[in-house]
Predict the 3D structure of the following.
Amino acid sequence: DAFKCSEEVITICAMLTCGGSVFYRPKDKQVHADNAHQNFHRGNVGDHIALMHVFNTWKEANFATQWCYENFVQIRELRRARDIRDQLVGLMERVEIDLVSDPSAHEQIKKSITSGYFYHTAQLQRNGSYKTVKHPQTVHVHPSSGMVQVLPKWLVYHELVLTSKEYMRNVTEIKPEWLVEIAPHYYDKTDVAAAK
């Protein structure tokens, strides 16, 4: 584990299997739901680390169903993520990969995510949209993202979802120089030169 955060990364991987359905927003309690969800995104940590916060906070609450109701989080999705996470832990133990944890190492966690999704990157354009770095196409931050108001210059995203526009779901801010550092076989300095 080059980034010394394997435990956090497997939590995020398990949570990503939920697609976009971790949070819910009942019509009669939209403000309460939005406030609860924003707590996980505090500090503009990005959607990946926010998902980790959801799981870890639920774990601290002894996986309580009541906690899910209070935080407007789908219990069924979290239980599925917990099962997948347990399977990933078992696989890592079987191949003798150490579980290393540092939940406060946000930069290392983001670099680790970038190393897995380096081909899913986008750069902010003047008009507020994004352009994917390789094979350029116009994309937008999904409205459900905790980063939708932030608009960082560079993002890594989990997947594209096409509705009325092409949306990036589960985004995290990155530094463009990480791309050359992490994936020199895919990016060179000219790909990230516009970042300066």
